[in-house]
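Per your request, structure below.
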């Protein structure tokens, strides 16, 4: 894929905060965040989110979210006692995070920054997460290298990418490409909004290679809604038929890993 300009990525997301058009409340209001949280928890319940993010494991430790959006995930780490930082490429997202944390009476530090140039010293964080963000970054491999750099030895990586070997990718988007003037590539780009300049889907093998600098990789697939399977008629598919398929053909590919302890061991020697 031709490399996209970071300025184009920034412009799109600054004008299109995730799910903002679906929320009938003023941006940054308490009601706005409550409505967003309800939408988010239809995808990942609080119990499921706790399994994915391991919130309880990082109480008293430092956590970073790359592409912090409106602060949903970071606020849960903070509620469990983590010292949290969030970076996002847009000033709108940084403002939303600050507003959320004010509404929730939580402490956190947020700044505008590029995932490809994280403004932190080496080995700063115990955990770095990035949910559905890195596949939009201009140079994803460079962003992954930056995450590896700022993690402490033994630090935890928790990320989510679009899943290429999914029903939405191979069925829905392919059918839509046949029936519209857009390519499948354009439709992947625009999964989170028309005009989005980049969205990349990965197979497990491709993501394993991308995250090759991390040890003990773990992967799982989730998230398959009726409308994601077939255009227009998918809404008529009984939900119970999709549940067994979600773990195979879902569109969210979650991955975890750890930065090797070897660097710490070498210094001790």
């Amino acid at each position: 894929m031709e490399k996209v300009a970071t300025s184009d990525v920034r412009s799109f997301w600054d004008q299109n905060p995730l799910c903002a058009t679906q929320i009938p409340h003023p941006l940054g209001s308490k009601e706005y965040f409550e409505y967003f949280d309800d939408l988010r928890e239809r995808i990942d319940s609080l119990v499921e989110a706790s399994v994915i993010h391991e919130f309880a494991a990082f109480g008293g430790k430092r956590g970073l979210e790359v592409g912090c959006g409106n602060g949903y995930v970071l606020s849960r780490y903070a509620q469990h006692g983590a010292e949290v930082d969030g970076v996002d490429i847009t000033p709108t997202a940084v403002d939303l995070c600050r507003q959320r944390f004010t509404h929730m009476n939580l402490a956190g530090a947020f700044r505008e920054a590029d995932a490809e140039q994280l403004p932190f010293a080496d080995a700063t964080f115990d955990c770095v997460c990035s949910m559905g963000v890195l596949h939009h970054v201009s140079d994803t491999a460079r962003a992954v290298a930056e995450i590896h750099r700022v993690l402490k030895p033994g630090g935890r990586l928790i990320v989510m990418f679009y899943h290429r070997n999914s029903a939405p990718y191979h069925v829905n988007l392919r059918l839509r490409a046949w029936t519209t003037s857009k390519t499948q590539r354009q439709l992947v780009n625009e999964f989170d909004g028309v005009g989005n300049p980049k969205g990349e889907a990965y197979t497990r093998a491709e993501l394993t290679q991308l995250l090759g600098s991390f040890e003990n990789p773990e992967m799982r697939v989730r998230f398959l809604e009726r409308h994601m399977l077939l255009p227009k008629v998918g809404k008529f598919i009984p939900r119970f038929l999709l549940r067994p398929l979600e773990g195979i053909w879902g569109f969210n590919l979650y991955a975890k890993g750890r930065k090797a302890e070897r660097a710490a061991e070498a210094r001790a020697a």
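Residues 6-164+198-225+250-268 form a domain with the Rossmann fold fold (CATH 3.40.50.150).

Regards,
D.
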